[in-house]
Design brief:
The structure is a homodimer. Chain A is an alpha/beta fold. Helices cover 42% and strands 17% of the residues of chain A. The two termini of chain A are 29 Å apart.
Chain lengths: 467, 467
Amino acid sequence: MVRLIFDPKIREMLEPSAVAVIGASSRPGKIGYEVLKNIIEGGFEGDVYPVNPKGGEILGLKVYQSVLKLPKTPELAVVTTPAQAALKVVEECGVKGVKGAVIISAGFSEVGNYDLERRLISIAKSYGVRIIGPNSAGVVNTSLNLYACLEFRVKSGPISLISQSGAIGGVLFAYARASRIGFSKFISCGNSADVDESEVLAYLAGDEGTKVIALYMESVKRGRHLIEVAREASLIKPVIALKGGRSNAGIRAASSHTGSLASSYAVYAGAFRQAGIIQVEFLEDLFNSAKALSTQPPARGDRVAILTNSGGPGVLTTDACESLGLKVPEPSSELKSKLMSILPPICSVRNPIDLTANASYDWYFESLKILLSSREFDGVIVICVPPSFMDSTLAARAVIDARRFYPDKPIIASFLYGDVVEEGVKLLEGNQVPNVSSPRGAAEAMKVLVDYGRIKFGRKFGRRFHG
Amino acid sequence: MVRLIFDPKIREMLEPSAVAVIGASSRPGKIGYEVLKNIIEGGFEGDVYPVNPKGGEILGLKVYQSVLKLPKTPELAVVTTPAQAALKVVEECGVKGVKGAVIISAGFSEVGNYDLERRLISIAKSYGVRIIGPNSAGVVNTSLNLYACLEFRVKSGPISLISQSGAIGGVLFAYARASRIGFSKFISCGNSADVDESEVLAYLAGDEGTKVIALYMESVKRGRHLIEVAREASLIKPVIALKGGRSNAGIRAASSHTGSLASSYAVYAGAFRQAGIIQVEFLEDLFNSAKALSTQPPARGDRVAILTNSGGPGVLTTDACESLGLKVPEPSSELKSKLMSILPPICSVRNPIDLTANASYDWYFESLKILLSSREFDGVIVICVPPSFMDSTLAARAVIDARRFYPDKPIIASFLYGDVVEEGVKLLEGNQVPNVSSPRGAAEAMKVLVDYGRIKFGRKFGRRFHG
């Protein structure tokens, strides 16, 4: 566990009792106004100090003319001044004893101003002030109602996100709001000039509020170190990553974005594997995977049962599972007989188990119990596309009820019908069953549970992992 | 065009002046009740005749005891009786002179009852009654408000769907409702025992209400014929397909689903290419592609400009474009200068064109005009992830306004922020600009426009197609 040691200042700045917003502005639309507003409206539990040489009052708070004049030393300074001014601000933070600064100001290495960034970090280091950013979109700690960022707020929950893109955080927050799930911490690393992904990862590995760590990254400075930290962290909780900048043009785009050179994708893929980091392919997967991992146990093998009330989505989900390397085997004749004893002959029991459009609560509930208790399957995807006369909450209720008997086997729901299944999905997600509304997405969510099973139960298939 | 000839009975049954629902039931939850209810509540413009030997009245309509006793000969009979009873029903339809029957009843080849299906078709053929199904989920023709199916209704629009899965239709309808787009026709072919995809495709190719034909298929009986029809059809309007049953287990699943053997995926992929059918990979792509093709012109080459206000999503969209075979080239120095003359230095103009979080209406509008008018790009993806102080309708308005000047170059919007961009997306989609809310999805939607450009402008890259 020695590798999970991190600078305690990281914790102090992410769990502050007071925050200064430097470059606070009274003009809506300015970053120094919007961040302050977000912190206030988010209901931050500690003290908030706007700082601006002009003084006065913003959003009902007294404005201090400099960090040096603050009545108390905040652990965190959020810097929104122009890039040039940030250097002096950081120096004053050092003098005052601030633990760390999140520099939202842009105009550093990402636009070629390498020297300015070096000087910023050198000043910070000389005072022992830790820097997140520059070019960060801010930080969030929902357990303190701290929203020191420009993103719309999200409720408290089990996922923490480390991101080299602020907007990716915003998009995942939007997915989360639509999915009734929440986030614990969000750290936008920006140019990662000082505090980098590895250090934040080490902090989150030990953070009680964080059940799953999601990572969006385009480049890494200390790759070896990240691998070492991730190897430890991933034994404690799942770490999933989406790599941006995989194609030639994507690498060029990434270099304009965070000012560092992205390496070849193959190198990353290998490193992620070595580090126990579960890699996902698409942005929506990063969220769906985090959702799945935050509520479901890891799978002990890769054999998936698909229970459905409609053929087409069953076929597509089967295709998606196999293309992701999962198995969708036919049940043994014993298991088939068991299923056939509770289902009418119109149902297919060859996997997908197709309950047809006549599926009832009982068919879902009874077959799900059989599948969850069977040693032939390691996880179940439950599809529901209700015909007009079926209430999706019946199928949802069947899933929730069956799951109670067998909480150790993962379930992914795939209720596919948008507005029609809204109530069913609400019920599922309110009861810790993740719903992923596309066949490929559902397969991918199951795959990460299998991946995490591999990591958790021995980093390779062992006797207890059926692969 | 000789290959696009089809039995005129297909048109008559899909554009009927009267419909009989045979096996009509007064019990909610029964298919014979729900289909009738859907037809009545959908507001079908013609006559509706429930048929049931018991007679009486259902949902306010007089029930006839047999098809033979109907006051007028309907063009379409919708059959919801048990499988065995369907044979006699079809015979009576033949005697009465009904043009065609949609057999929703299941229990034929899909569960191994091949002989029953053969007898059904043989009776139908002897009377010249055309059969859609059996095991069909029904048919929809929104221009007549005809919803002879179990799926929830959808508004009228440019997309028609031929599907071997009823549920896939239902799921696409749900996507459409969420996206303010509509469908023209939906034909669920079920087991395709008589009328098959080829015939419906030939009909839709000439159907004025259909601008784009989407196809979900698991298997095909007359592959050569389908290719021939599709080659003609795809020159008139885009034909896109999703193939279900690609993996070994998926093929097994498909055979349980529609009772026919799916062939190898490679064979299909080759045939689709030959036929000018644009193939998509995932279910959500089938909808997004149809949406894109129904509103945007085909692209005249594969060079994509990406205009964004946030780095991460720009990087991911670039990756997705390249992985799909599209090019995301850096602009020439002339074009860069042009962009730089209207944008501040903080913006990157290397493609993605990154307007940063400070993006305004003007920046979007002016750079989009430059990109749309440039000969260096064949299409533009416009990304917007608005910071908390930006109204997404501003960016949407900029897209709509710029597009007016250059309607011949395709645009895909990718406003990524769920609830936050709802108003902007409404504005875009109300003005014929499709929004696809994931980087990969947006790239895929652009790719089908490039694919269709290839088909439309010469089936291969010509001088006017930059590839």
